[in-house]
Amino acid sequence: MSDSPLIYARAVTKIYRKDGMDAQALRGVDLDVHAGDFLTIVGPSGSGKTTLLNLIGALDIPTAGELRVFGQDIAALSKGARADLRLHSLGFVFQSYNLVPVLTARENVEFVLELQGMGPERRTRALDVLEQLGLADFADRRPSELSGGQQQRVAVARAVASRPRLVLADEPTANLDGANAETLVDLMAGLNRDDGITFVFSTHDPRVVAHAGRVVTLEDGRVTRDEAGAPAP
After folding, report:
1. Model confidence over 68-87: pLDDT tens digits?
2. Could you count the other beta carbons within 10 Å of the beta carbon of residue 60?
């Protein structure tokens, strides 16, 4: 059905076991995310924001509950099927960037496009996105030659270059100054508006929250609020 949620979560629980002790990161999360949403997840550190993004992104599976992404039950997918889902339908922005250190900024952005089978045009696509993020002059530099904020923008460029159906971003503006944060949010808002890409962020940044169409609050592993945010741009 066209109105079916892109992400469907019911009673999603995640428990990590370490040194014989259980730590409950999520405690029965219910959440629907629809195609075209521009949604921000907020909450204090340790509230479960990153855990929820990792589950939605098929990097992990729930301990209990039901989580469907694009109609697929994440817990029922094989590792290979989850990897295929990530490659072809999802874009990620990690707090730790996860850039390949031996590749240049351009090559990092091209990497996913190459894995997806895109031809020589992937170079132009990568350079276009880097230019939009103010990184045209840094395209041939490796991550070690970039500042933390520049690495963050390369990670965003890599996530959005393939125009995935869904982008998951964990604190995407954490290392950016005001001007670069605004440029980044404007780029993603434009991709949401013009290309219909769905965005789910976790953030503490009021600049991101101010642009969000929905704001979901997590506290102690539970959704405590789900409210409309800014009107669509």
Report:
1. 999 999 999 999 999 999 99
2. 17
